[in-house]
Design goal:
Mean pLDDT: 89
Structural class: alpha/beta
Strand order of the largest sheet: 3-2-1-4-5
Length: about 325
């Protein structure tokens, strides 16, 4: 006889989180896998399949269960990069009765509002803002690292990397940040660093890691403070557009993601919002994105079918 459980999954650009619970919503285990975004890239379908499989297996393994022994009565997947093409892959991996799939913004917003109206700004590897008011939604940003993601970890790291070349030419001051970025690249020359970036050997992941370095240098190099403040302003800008579009001036605006771990970014972002919208409540997420996905799965179960919440996100 199969074990009946609930499942919530958050799939992003850096990792995937699976949360398994009993039918009352009591969390039993969590598991993690690799990134599960950009399914249209070469090899991405298999990476997505592996990330979902690994995260769920890790959670079930803690319970001494395998996917073959479980039926998920309801499951919600919030996935970065859009839900298209995902359902067929997901259904090959395990048995599920009621499946809900939407953008990962569904998880992020629920983690702040608990299913109510409001806005959320996400800034991890990528960045975007999303809001809901009734059945109306608004999304700003989230165009990926090539076309957007301003204020994200990758964008911040790229600005630090560009600073090296500007400083090399004398357009910026060669200080602590330029020296640290160049030294950590292990490139023998700035030209060699240039070549490694364009060849792909200095990749997106390495660039994104520079965001933490920028924050570490906040008291060592004025350039670090400049870049962090710009990131905060970029994130405020996308939040502002969502709030104005949906008229959420008196609602809740949340924030989530590793970039907000920077005191400089977080404090400036909050200050900008409170100055612009004095009646707005600004707060951090109250649960992990995976836990929020589980809450939406419970909503799916309660309604006996697709959650109105997830349907709203699919229309966004």
């Amino acid at each position: 006889m199969s074990v009946e459980l609930l499942l919530g999954v958050d799939g992003g650009q850096s990792h995937t989180e699976a949360v398994v619970a009993d039918l009352r919503g009591r969390i039993l285990a969590k598991g993690h896998g690799g990134p599960s975004n950009h399914i249209h890239e070469p090899g991405a379908k298999e990476r997505f399949r592996k990330a979902i499989r690994d995260s769920i297996d890790a959670a079930l393994g803690k319970l001494g269960l395998s996917r073959a022994e479980v039926v998920f009565v309801a499951a919600h997947f919030g996935l970065s990069g859009g839900p298209e093409l995902r359902e067929r892959i997901i259904r090959t991996l395990f048995a599920v009765e009621r499946l809900s799939i939407s953008e990962d913004t569904s998880n992020a917003l629920w983690s702040v509002t608990g299913g109510g109206d409001g806005a959320i700004v996400i800034s991890g590897s990528g960045s975007n803002a999303f809001g809901r008011k009734g059945e109306r939604t608004c999304r700003v940003g989230g165009w990926g690292h090539i076309l957007g993601d301003e204020g994200s970890g990758y964008h911040l790291g790229m600005q630090a990397l560009k600073h090296v070349f500007r400083a090399h030419e004398g357009r910026d001051r060669w200080g602590w940040l330029a020296e640290q970025v160049f030294r950590r690249s292990k490139a023998p020359t700035v030209r060699a660093l240039h070549d490694s970036v364009y060849s792909g050997s200095y990749d997106k992941v390495q660039i994104g890691r520079l965001a933490k370095l920028v924050d570490q240098g906040v008291d060592k190099d004025a350039q670090c403070r400049i870049l962090l403040r710009r990131s905060a302003d970029d994130l405020f800008e996308i939040a502002e557009r969502v709030i104005l579009t949906l008229k959420l001036h008196s609602a809740v605006c949340g924030y989530v993601g590793k970039v907000f771990e920077s005191d400089t970014v977080r404090k400036r972002f909050i200050r900008n919002l409170r100055n612009r919208f004095p009646r707005l409540t600004v707060e951090s997420a109250q649960m992990s994105p995976g836990e929020a996905a589980l809450q939406i799965a419970m909503d799916v179960l309660k309604r006996g079918g697709a959650s109105a919440w997830s349907e709203i996100y699919l229309k966004a």
